[in-house]
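#onboarding

Welcome to the new folks! Below is a worked example of what a typical request in this channel looks like: someone posts a single protein sequence, and someone else replies with the predicted structure as tokens. Don't worry about understanding the tokens yet, we'll cover that in week two.

Example request:
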Amino acid sequence: MNRQRKVLAISVACLALTTTLANAQPARVDRAEHHEYTIENFKTESGVTLPKAVIVYGTYGHLNADRSNAVLLPSHYMANHHGYEWLIGPGLALDTAKLFLVATELFGNGNSSSPSNTPEPYHGPRFPVTTIRDNVDAVHRLLTDDLRITHLRAIIGFSMGAQQAFQWAVSYPTFADRIVATSGTAKTYGHGVVRLEGQIAALTADPAFKDGDYTEPPAKGMAAFAMVWAGWLYSQEWWRRDLWKAGAPPGTTLDQFIKAWPTRFLPTADANNIILQARTWERHDVGQTPGFNGDVEKALGSIKVPFLYMPSETDLYFPLTDAQYEKQFMKTVVFAPIHSIWGHPAGAAPNPEDKAFLNETIGRFLAGRTQR
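Example response:
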């Protein structure tokens, strides 16, 4: 194999290992129907009003006559609406022969309203920082005004989708019968903010970034961001066991794998979009919901419906200890940690074992068969 072909093969392997962030699809899934919903004069928590706020979303299955079979799947970091297809299909937790699935895309992913696709005066770095509550508010309008859905069978979220699941539970405590959060917490604590700011600093140190008004992608900054991300994505045990070799061509060295990583990590993403969603992540705190005065414990205690909380035991983004702290204030929690060495991606089925555990546990919970 010549050097060019080998680098390409390693790059493809890197892409395979970031399926939870790059939305790779399993071999057999139901097809999603693509939709857009526009909100005129959408006021964000920052005080900025977007003349048009667009939400891109996908649907699977069919809404029944009384609109009672809907499940919401809010997207995670830089993901599109295909990010939950590990849960969807015959024999999995979400059977579209019975359920209608609505998979929404976060502001800032490049499809929904984002720095990259919004005209001036809010283009690029001038796009307002949107919060998780902004996203939940917008999707609530989508469901109630556009789809005329006033109640959900369930909300299921991974990572930033889990952040949204928590916010739904606090902002709209009876809107869904059941809620599931995998690899995500009710608040981004200080260490998570430091991590994200470190990644942003790596990106923006590239002179080509030009304070967000770049004329060409800040490639060096994006590569630096990707490498910092790699150091946090998987667990130390995952690296010690050389699990990165699973999808790499025979003979690939760790050095080759690391060098190829940035070329395939979020390959089409815009730098301002990446930063916007990181800042959305940073600001997440259900305690800041109106009525709770910054008290996350009180907000967690307000959750009314059964809540399946599934942290990854080796997550470096949302540590298990943070989840253990939060669960003690939740009266309706079913706590089911994911025993995996895959770190953060464990909450989105990166391997057959985690996929089986997630589907079985979530399926039982949705059917009401899980004991607290």
